[in-house]
Amino acid sequence: MRVALFSDIHGKILLPFKLVDLYQKQTGNAVDFILQCGDMGAYPNIENLDKATIKHAQYDRDELGFHDDFTKINPDIQAFLNQLNINMICVRGNHEDHDFLDELEKENFQNSLFPIDVYEKVFVCKSGLKQELKTENETLTFVGIGRIGDRKGRSEKRFVQDYEKKEIRKLLKTKDNFDILITHDKDNSGEENYGMPEIRNILDHVIFHYHFYGHTGEPFKQETDCNGITQSIKIKELEFNASGILEKGCMIILTKENGELSIEVVDQKLTNTMTKYNWKDQ
């Protein structure tokens, strides 16, 4: 099983699918799923954009990619996604239309994840619930935790909600081990008043082999978590730099083979094929 991981796509919903298609063609290695660490930019209605997205969208229409390309059927995009036949599973970030996502989550109350787009290729997983991805020979277990932490008692929907904290606390009683944890925010073991305490608590009490996150703006990095077990990986945001190219560590491939996990940081020679100026035409 191979899983491609991305973070902070900010409306460029189609770009991870195109990068996976390119990776498969150039390497000959099939990818089974995409996981995405939040800030999808899931805004179906432009009038609901937050201030940061409004600011960026004035200069970059890609910020509105969910609205433009994934709320009504584009035959070309539909044909491409159907041929690729890979689902992307995301956690919520802080830059999403949470009212829109809340309604879909309520409608799918019996399921641990739910589709959010017109093609039913993009899914959001509920925070704190056990998830499984299956192929013929492998099963990957993971937990997602969306949104960001807060130390000031604020209740806006960009912050982790009480019902999600309840589900996360339930994990503390589990005796299961998991392959990976995907979150938008980082844990709070670094800077004061930054990060999500719930993530730190989970990493201290539940065994995960890998933890992938985004949000912080830091470069790609891989290090052993302070629990001494989990490999913690900051995925570089899927953003084009001033030169119009994607930066190192924006695309990670996780492989599970015969029960063993390994990761590949996709070479920039591949990702540089898609620039800010040509990626939609690739």
TrEMBL record:
Give any GO molecular function from the UniProt entry. Answer: hydrolase activity
The cross-references to InterPro entries, in alphabetical order and at most eight, read: Calcineurin-like_PHP, Metallo-depent_PP-like
**What region holds the Calcineurin-like phosphoesterase domain?**
1-217
Q: What name does the UniProt record give this protein?
A: Serine/threonine protein phosphatase
Q: From which source organism is this entry?
A: Chryseobacterium pennae
